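the two lines:
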Amino acid sequence: MHDSLATEPTPAVEEALGASRPAARASAPPLISARGLTKRFDDFTAVDGIDFEVAPGEAFGFLGPNGAGKTSTMRMIGCTSPVSDGELRILDMDPRRQGPQIRSRLGVVPQQDTLDNELTVRENLLIYGRYFGLPREECARRADELLDFVQLADRGKDLVEPLSGGMKRRLTIARSLINEPSLMLLDEPTTGLDPQARHLLWDRLYRLKQRGVTLVLTTHYMDEAEQLCDRLVVMDKAKIVAEGSPQQLIQRYSTREVAEFRFLPGVQETLDGKLDGLASRIEKLPDRVLLYADDGEEVVMAARERGIHPEAVLVRRSTLEDVFLRLTGRSLVD
Amino acid sequence: MSSFLDAREPAGIGRVPPLAPSWSTIGRVIEHRAMLYRRTFRASLFASFGVPLLFLTAMGLGLGGYVDQNPDPTLEGLTYLQFLAPGLLAATVMQAGSFEAAFPILGGLQWNKIFHAMFATPIRAADIAYGNIVWIALRLTLIATVFAIVIVGFGASRSPLLVLAIPVAVLTGLSFSTPLMAFTATQRTPDKFAAIFRFGITPLFLFSGTFYPIENLPEIVRPIAWVSPLWHGVDACRMLMLDTVGRDPLLFTIHIGVLVALAGTGAAFAARTFEARLVRG
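prediction for all of em together
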């Protein structure tokens, strides 16, 4: 159906793209290494033999639709769900035997908020520091600093319940930092937030990244992955289907630009063959046609010359959404 | 002052941190409950006085005045109030212990998921179970102590061994708390709690010798009392408060043994069901 893959990036391009990774050094041993990592529930395989490594200082993402196995992977890394098969080392420790010790060095932001609604914002941080065995004065010092960092200092004495979704997420992030984690695990950190709240959250995560915190996150938003991740793996149906930096993945599996054509209802079905050869790859979705090419405008011109007049035309750069579509034949968001 | 959020080199593999001892991690779970309790302490203490006052007044004095027209021949000068007080002590603590093992535990596992938040830290699943059990024991100790003070106020204790009835009542409560807690950890909704309270706790409250000697029951239903942990607790508290342990030390030992076995087994099961639940997510 589709023509050949976009050309592989040259080594020089590969290197240039890799250079955007700030702190990952080839020499440093990985903080996480997984080989053949598998999670089974009864007869259902949630994670099916995946391999990956996360280097110190890296922002590493798992991108995939709901049910791809992202959360199961995160829970195994978080040492709250036992590995069914394969090998997993976290901070050079074995989650089977050293779960509590590994957890003492992790900062976890779960998919669903697990804040204590009956305590105040500040108390939530204080008690969480105590769970890690920190002295009370140290908990208090860090709590105040973290409240500043997530811009909740003026809400410290309020109960958690009336906070907005974005504020609760920020509090959860502050909470996960109370033990100065070597590794932060964020499971869909911005799902369900409005755009403004998401940008504020991204800004805080970006700052953490700059400060040398290693981030591992899952997301089904390609813009989130592009904003935050130095490197990511695309997961689909319990397996990893591609790996690289966002730019690498777009280079490898998509074209520079995409022309999107929308037609009046019924018109798209009558086009058969008329678009062939206009672009290096054509993807027909129920509501629009995507034409992949390095120059989108050129495609639009060529289509007009053929007498094709879409109701609406959009030329844009390729995103990870296109990569995902290419790899799985399906769109990413439900 | 430098901030721990300052830019730095990314953390590497580093050292393997020491494993925190269980007493410490269990202590952190208790600290959380204590932090919550500070908010409701006054209302809770008030209620702890209210229940025994109401019951002892209504049943002990009201009903007792009527019952005392036919005194017990085996115990010189025993009033109904004195008979009732140890039973109510054990039964009240049992009810509190059951409640504490149901709704607050389901809340932490299902509603606000704070036990899952704890489980993401060095705290183990068993620590969360044991920490909650210790906390419930502390709560029940407070309730039992307040109850004992009210009993003294009513002049309803015949022996200073009343002091020992406090831990026995707490043990009675725990013999209900721990198995129920193990069960709660397997539930995702409170649907079955109503049935447990209606068909389990309430009948035991009525048929375990709390209000009358079980010898007054028809012989057919008497075994209900023997297998009821509450009866063991009620009778042990009564033996202490009426100073009759010496009459049958073996029976007293059996009472304590049954309660300890139940509470201990329940705790072991709770540790396992908590682990299974927290791992499943």
